[in-house]
Input
Amino acid sequence: MPRAATLNAQSSDSPPKKAVAIVGIGASAGGLAAIKSLFGSMPSNTGAAFVVVVHLSPDHQSHLAELLQPHCRMPVQQVSEAVALEANRVYIIPPNANLSAIDTHLRLTALEELPRNRATIDHFFRTLAETHDGHSVGIILSGTGSDGTLGIRRIKEAGGVTIAQSPHEAEYDSMPRSAIASGMIDLVLPLSEIPEEVARLANAEYHIAPQIEDTPIADDDNRLLQKIFAQVRTRTGHDFSQYKRATVMRRIARRMQLRNVTSLSDYLRLLRDEPTEAKALHKDMLITVTEFFRDREVFEHLQEKIIPRLFEGKQASDRIRVWSVGCSTGEEAYSIAMLLMEEAEKREEHPAIQVFASDLHDDSISSAREGIYPKEIEADLSPERLKRFFTREGDHYRVRSEVREHVVFAPHDVLSDPPFSRMDLVVCRNLLIYLQRDVQEDVISLFHYALNPEGTLVLGSSETIERSDLFSCEDKAACIYRKRGTTSREPRVPMFSTIGRNRNRRPGHERLPEQHAETHTSYGRLHERVVEHYAPPSVLVDARDELVHMSAHAGRYLLMPGGEITKDIFRLVRPPMSIDLRALIQQARSSKQIVRSKPITVGFNGDSARIVIRASAAHENGHELEGYVLIIFDEHPIPHDLPDGEAGSGAGGGGATQRELEEEVELARQRLQSLHEEHEARREEMQASNEELQSANEELRSTMEELETSKEELQSMNEELATVNQENRHRVEELSQLSDDLANLLAATDIATLFLDRQLRIERFTPQVSQLFNVRHTDRGRPLADITHSLDYPEIQADARTVLDRLTPIEREAEDKEGRWHLVRILPYRSAADRIAGVVITLIDITARKKSEQEIANARHYAEAIVETLHEPLLILHPDLTVKGGNEAFYNHFKVRREETIGRRIYDLGNSQWNIPELRTLLEDVLPESNVFNDYEVTHDFEDLGHRVMLINARRLDHVQLILLGVRDITSRKQHEEQLKRLLRELDHRVKNSLATVLAIARETTHDAASIEEYTKRFEGRLLALAHVHSLVAKSQWNGASLRAIIETATKPYCDDRPDRQNISGPDITVNAQAAVTLAMVFHELCTNAVKYGCFSVEDGLLDVSWSADDSIELIWRETGSMSVDPAPEPGYGTRFIEQSVGYELGGECSCEYLPDGLQCKMHVPSRAIATTSKSSVEVHADAE
Amino acid sequence: MQSESKRHDKQDEQPRSDPSNALAGRRILVVEDTLIVAKELARMLKQWQCEVIGPVGRREEALKLAQTETIDAVLLDVNLHGETSDDVAEVLLEKRVPLIFMTGYGREGISPRLRDLPRLTKPLDLDELRDALVGALAKAQNSNRAQPPSHSSNR
Output
C-alpha cells in the first residue's frame, strides 16, 4: 500500500500543499434527480472538488454537465482530458472516459477495450482510493444493482469517509442498500443532510497526519495511544499495539474526522463513553481490501509455477495444505482454491486439497463462509471461472459448494494463536505491513515453522523478508519465498513461549533474546566473540560436555582416543588433564566464574609442558548460555631442572634424613601410586557407569525432544482440529437449521412422505404416513413389503423398484379404503453426491381435486352429450383456430373424418375448403372484439358438397380458452324459400293469365249472346268451368289433372243426379294444367251445346265419351238420343270455338258432326301437347330476385 | 309521331282511312297460346285497322312467321305452352322488328338479355296496348332512320 500522503509530503516540501479533498459521487437509475437535489443545497465554498460518475451507455453523449449547471452554485465541467483539480468545482466523468488517476489532476487515459460489465462506479472509487490520499469522501446515491459496493471499501480502507443516500428516499434503493449491507458505509443520510456533512468533512484538517514510518510519536500521543489500545482491547479482546503506528494513526484519524473530534484525548474520552466507538474503531482497523485474483501477476505466477509444484510427487492419498492468512472476506482463499481445483482437473489423480483461511475478524469470516459476492466481481473473474465456480443468485454470485468444501474458515490470530502446521503454501498478503517490524519477524519465523520443507510463502507486494536464513527469495516481483532447508536443529514453534498467549502483558516491544540468540546465533560466532578476549587456544563445550567448537590451535591439547569417534571432552583431552578438567568445568558451571587449575604437566610427544586450564561459563551480552563452557589452555614451558631442583632442595637437608625421607617419599609414592591406580580403576568404572548414564540421559533427552516435537505437533493439530470443529459446528448449525426448515416444511405442507432405501426399507416417514400405512417409529428399517396399507395400489413396490432402476419418477392416483384419493408420487432419492440412495414416496390427498375433476368430467360429458345431440354441426376451436373437436353432425354433414380434423387449423381442413374469406373475417376480426356472433350467413362452394349457404354462430369461451362454432346449413331451406317464391310468382302468373282469359271470355261472350240474360248465363257458365278446372289442377299443384276428372267436372251439373246419362271410358291419362284448362273449356262448350240441343236436352239422351291413348289421344264425344233436336243446328260460335281451341291450343284436330241421333265430336290431340312435365311450366331464371 | 308514321310504311296495300291512326295498316304478328285471348287481341287490332298476322300459339309457328313474314311489330307471349319465346324474340331483334312482350310474370319471367324490351302485363289494358304499339313502332322508325339512307330511299 503505497502511501500517497508520504509521497506528497516529500514532493511538495514547502509549504506542504494540502491535496484537495475529493468528494466522489456515484449514481445510477434515479440519480440525476438526486444529484440535482444534492448540488442544489451544496454550498459553493466547501473547499472540496466534486467528481461525479453516473451510469450511462458509453455511446451516449452525456449532457449531464449542462443539466446540472443550473442547479449548482459551483462551476460544472465535463471532463474530456486531464484537468487540474480545483476546489469548489464539479467534474463530470463522461461514460466513455477511462479514469486512471485522481491526484492533483483528473487524469484520463486512452480508452481501452472496455472490460465486460465494467462496474463504472467501483472503478471510479478504486481509482480514487488508490491514487488520492485518504482525504476523500465516497457517496452512493440512488441506483439499481450493487455497483459501488466494492469501491467504497477501498475508499474506507484508504482513510476516506463513505456516505450512502438513505434508501428510504432513494428512487432506486438497491445500490445504496447493497453498499450499506457490506458494512462499509459510515453514514447513511438523506440528501438534504449530505451537503452539511460533506462541507464539514472537507474542511476537517488531518489533526493527526498519517505518520511516516519510524518517525517517533510524541510521548504524549504515545501515552494516549496506549490508552486507546487498552480501551479497544478491553472492549473487543483484540490488541492493536503490535500494529504499525502509521496505520493505527490513520484509522484513528479517520474515526476522529468522522466523529468530529479534534484531539486524541477527546477521542479517548469518546471511546470511554461510547462502547460502540471501540467496536467501530476495531472494525475500521481490520478493513482489508481484497478481491478475486488480486494482483494478477502474482496469481499467474502461482498458477504457472507454484501450484503445479505443489502437486508434484503427491499421491491421491496425500493432501495439499494451504494457509491463507488474513483472508478477510475469503476472496483470496477461494481464488487459491480455484487455482488448485483447475490444476487438479488436469491430473488423472490428485491429492486432496485443503485451504485453511484465517482472519481475525469474525464478521469477515462469517461472510467468507457464506461465499456470496456482488455481481461486480464479474470484472475480476473470467467468464469460465464464473461459470465453473459460482452460481448466480439474483444480483449476487454464490461460490459453488464444491469450492466451498475445500476451504476451511476460522477466526485466528497469528500473533497469539498457535499456527497451523505442515503447510505446502502459506499466503499472507498485506498483513505484515500493518505490523511493527519486530513482530513481522516473529510472524515470518512462525510461517517458517508452519511450512513443510521446501514450502512456499507468498507475501504482499510491499512486504519483504529480511531473515534470509529462513527463506530464500524465489520471485522478487511476485513476493514469493521458499523455505530454506536448514541443517541445524530446526527451531520449533518459536513464538509460543515468548510472545505466546501472555503477549499482552509484555511491556512495549522489548525482545526476549535468550532462546532466540541461542538457537539462531552460530556457535562459531559466539566462540569467536569470546576469543577476542582470550587469545590462547580454547575449546567450547556444551552442557553435555561435548566439544562443539575449538580454536585453531586447540588440537594440540586433544588426542583422539581409539574406538568410536567421540566428542566427549574428557576423552579427547590429553589424559593428564582430564581429571582436573572435569573438576574445573563443574566448578565453572556452578560458580559462574572463571576458574583455573594448578599447572599440570602434560607430555607432548616426548616433550612436556605445564598447562594451566581455565574454564569459564560462556556468556553473551551479559547473559549466560546455559551449560556452555569455554576452556582455555595456558601453556607454560617446564624448566628442565625443575623436578631435580625440588629433589635438590631436599638433598641439602641431610643424607640420612634425606634417605628416610626418600624412602618415605618412595613409600608414599608407591601408596599414592596404588591409590592412584585404585582411583584410576574406580574412575574408569565410574566413567563406564557415567557413560551409561550419559547414554541413558541422551536417550531420555532425545525421547524428551521427540515428546516435545509431538507435543507441538499435537498442539498444532489441536488448533487445526479446533478450527475444523468450529467449521463443523457451523455446518451442524446450518444443518440443524435446514433440518428444522425441512421438518416445518413437511409439517406445513401436510404431505405424507416416505423415504425408502435402496432395498425399499423404511428409512424415515412423516406422521401423516401412518394414516395410510401401518407404520410406527419402531418400523424403521423394515421392508416396505411388511407394511400393510389401505391404498388400492398393489404395484407400489414394483413401481418403487422401477423408479430405482430407471430413475424416472412415477405418478399414480390411488384410492384408499375410505374412498379418499391420493396422488402417489415416487421419486428417486438423490444424495448430494448425485448418488441414488433410495426412493421418496409422497402421498398427496387429492380427494377434493378428484371430486372436482369428476365434476368437471361430468360437466364435460354433459357438454359433449349436448354437442353430440345437436343436429347442427358444431366445431370446437382453440383460440389459435385449431380444431379441438366437433360433433358427429359436423363430421357427417361435411363428410370429413374426425381424425383428419382434430388438431388442424380450421382453414386447413379438407383441402382448405374452410378457408372462406368471410369466415376468416368473422373469426379473426369480429370474434376477438365481441366474443359472440350470431347467424352470420356465409356462402361457399365446397368441393364435395357444392354450393352451400350456412349460418354461423360462434361463442368465445374465455374461461376455457375455446371457441364454439355452430354451423347451420341452410342451403335446402334457402332452396325451399326459392321454390316458394317461384311458386308464388307462378301463381301470380297464372292468376294474371286466368284473368286475361276471363277478360277475353267476357269480351268474346258478347259476340255469341243475343241478350243480356243470355250473356250472363254464358259468361257465368264459362267462368265456372274455368274455376272448376282451376280447382282441379290446383289439387295437384298445377301438375295436371286426370282426363276423366276434367270430363266429369264438365258434365257434373247435368249428370250429377243422373249418372246413367253418361258413360266415360278410357285409359288413365294425366293432362298438364294448361291442356286441362283448354280441354275443360272445350268440354264445357260441348256440354252447353248438349244442354241446348243435344243429349242433355232430352230425358233419355246419353253421352258417351271414350278415348284411347297412344302417340296421340283419340277422343270421341258421342251424344245419342237427342234426335228430337231438329233440324241440326248450324255450327255456332261454340262449335267453332271447340274446333279452333283444339287446333290452336293443343295442336290437334277436332271435328263436330251431327249424326241423326246426336252430336259426334272427334278429337285428335298429340300426346306431347298434354303431357305433364316434371318442371314447372315456366323456368324462373336463376338470377331472378 | 303520327306524321312520321306516314313515311314509314312499307306495305301500303290498304289505304288508311284515318290518317290520325298510326296503327292503320300495320302488320302486327300476334303470338299468344290461349286461343280466346289471341282472338280477342286480333279482333282489337283489326278494329284499329291493323293487319293481323296469326295469331299463333306455338313457338315453331311463331318462328316460321317471324322469319318469313314482313312484320311491323309483334305482340309476343313470353310463355308458349310451357316453352319460352326467347328464340322468337331473338329472330325479331335480328330483323329489327319491334316487339312487345306479354306476360303474367313480372320482369323476372323474361330472359335477362331481353328484359329491357317493352313489356305488357296480362290481363292487357287495351289503351296501354295501343300506346305500347304506337311507341314501339315510332321507336323502330327512329332507329331505322339512323340506318344508311338506302333503307329510306324508296320512300
